[in-house]
Amino acid sequence: MHKSELSGGWLRRFLAVIICFFLVPHLGLSQNAAVNPALLTGSWNAHWVSCPGVSQRAYGVYHFRKHFSLDSLPAHFIIHVSADNRYVLYVNGVRVGRGPARSSLLYWNFGSYDIARWLRRGDNVIAAMVWNMAEYAPVAQITDQTAFLVQGDSPKEQLVNTDRSWKVLRDSAYRPCATNMGAVLHSYVVVGPGDEVQGAHYPWGWQEPGYADADWQAVRVLATPVAPQGYGSDNLWTLVPRAIPAMEERMQRLAEIRRDSGVQVSAAFLKGHQPVTIPAHSQVRLLLDQSFETVGYPQLKVSGGRGSRIKLTYAEALYDRQGRKGNRNEISGKTIRGLYDIFYPGGGQDRVFSTLWVRTWRYIEVEAQTGDEPLVLEDFYADYTGYPFIRQAKFSSSDPSLGQIWKVGWRTARLCAGETYFDCPYYEQLQYEGDTRIQSLISLYNTGDDRLMRKAITDFFHSRVPSGLTQGRYPSSRFQVIPPFSLYWVSMLYDYWMHCPDQQFIGQYLNAASLVLDWYQRHVDTAYQMLGPMEWWSFVDWDDAFPGGVPDGATDGHSSVVTLQYAYTLRQAAALFAAYGRTESAAQYRQLADRLAAATYAHCFDKTRGEMANQPARQKFSQHASIMGVLSGAIPASQQADVMRRVLSDTSLSQATFYYRFYLTRALIQTGMGDQYYASLTPWREMLNRGLTTFAEKPDPTRSDCHAWSASPIYDFLATICGIMPDAPGFSRVRICPSLGELTEVSGAMPLPGYPRCNSPEEQIKVHLTRHGSEGISGEITLPPGLSGVFVWQGKEIPLHAGTQRIQD
Description:
Jelly Rolls; 11-stranded mixed beta sheet; single chain
């Protein structure tokens, strides 16, 4: 490791153990390159470098270059690359990677690339664009200072190590814009600024081998390498291998020109077939419709246009004069507002302008103003990007309208998954436990790929504060604690244990889980045996009756909702800890859950109403309280079905929004009322009827039109309607208990979770069922080799074995 990252030999050895035992078995390196084990336990002789004569913590965009010569072409040439904040890496003019994956300074990621395919005999150039957004950086971006690092994997590859032989240029073309989006959108917007780029100042072709860089500066060396003895120095970044694969990138074209003014534009322009010429001294506006929401890097190719200005504005939806979105397909009388970029072409042919970071949009407005020279818009498209999930799951039913929910739910989930899970791609791009628990289950059921879930679990583990709680979102440069979300982190451990085969992975987090549970135990009011007053932000749901999302009693004491969530989590933890031989802790958690559940039922359950109140005063009631009353076992099993019927029918209750309906569904299943799930899909149908192409944060008026927690139907179509659930840890047994509702036929298939087994077609659970009348069912179930289980219908259990079997009941 780099000397600047380790302080003393003991610390280096400790980190080596951590990396080798916990990280190395789970690598998903960006270009299938392997890391030399000596680099994980020994010293790095590359230097962190930067640009001389600049403030290390100020906004800036920089270009780095290194010339080197090869007498012959190697079979492999592996390098490890990192930067702060971000880099785009080029080899001989070809873009080969972006990074680093977002993380923290104590676990700063490096990406590994085998660049042999892009090398040639003789002269070669490695180049990188590096930028620091400084005070404008996204909140999800943690940073120390501007820096860049390349380390060769072996001695033959270390001729490209970053040292004083590298050159650097500060790019004067860039400055931030759109830095006031919170005020413009009247909302919380923390994804970073727009880019304002002066084309006349940009060093076009800087990444190409033939570019003249004689006037570039030698880099500034920030830190010396790690000595074999581990001599101490400032600890700037502690490097660990990237744990997830490179992001997917592919071309994506816009679908339609909805409005144009100042020039007529043919639809062929959006297909790349017909450039648009804008005369000198003209003003043009084009409203482009992707036809669905997406995430990517816009690519605008222009020629000429010296003295021109182009502004690109991105929006999920348009707004009417009252600030309402309405039907997202309608544009009449509506305008656009949102994040924007500004490009000044500056003349020249075939100039391609893009953005430093991803943009989110359904609609893009192109506003161009020309000077003395005409401007030619040669082409406009985007490079879609996101975590490279491959959907393996399938679902169909006798109601074809569910197919649209299946499609839109998957788009929602994909747009909310990058180097971390995102709560929403437009406004925040932050990874919260409450969202991430649901997203992880969606990923496992639809793709089987557990790598992003593993990274999320590890990210939250790294976020812990001295009290033992996790931060509510992480990575994050702003400190925020949401105690109920720490409980969902423990639930994520339980979920991984039940669904994925790597049982060793979870064992390392049990001590941290116990600290979360201990924090809550310290807040129990022993007189009530309920949680007393709690610090921080006890967010539960964006229910209108919960100010700031916080239920009654969460701050001042005796919240049934949060107390029962704690009891629910304690029961999960008891099962988890018992499985790992920690029987004393498991017994303690079960006993505490029983006490909390019994006391909360005694204080808060209103027997006249048959519902759980939010607090012992029994003045306010919510769906949430009764939902958690069921899931925690506080409400006796004999009463649970009646309570859930009231939850569904009593409109006076504070209502669960899209997010908390995930837990509503869990309660329905637990009470044998899973057949009610199909009827509960009305809110998702309404979103589709209003023209949404992703699922929103909450019912209109909503901030985010794309919010991952609302994609839960694409988990529940498989887990609830098809009824596919793990019946033992690691999905070593399966329980299939379908809840068809009004459906007469369903087909579903899902991969067994856990990378790489999910890539095998044989490792799939397949279900095809037809219902006959109110009670009869028939169909076919296929289980992967080695998997057995049980099929449950109308209280009857039918054993299942590996292979294909007929069901007839």
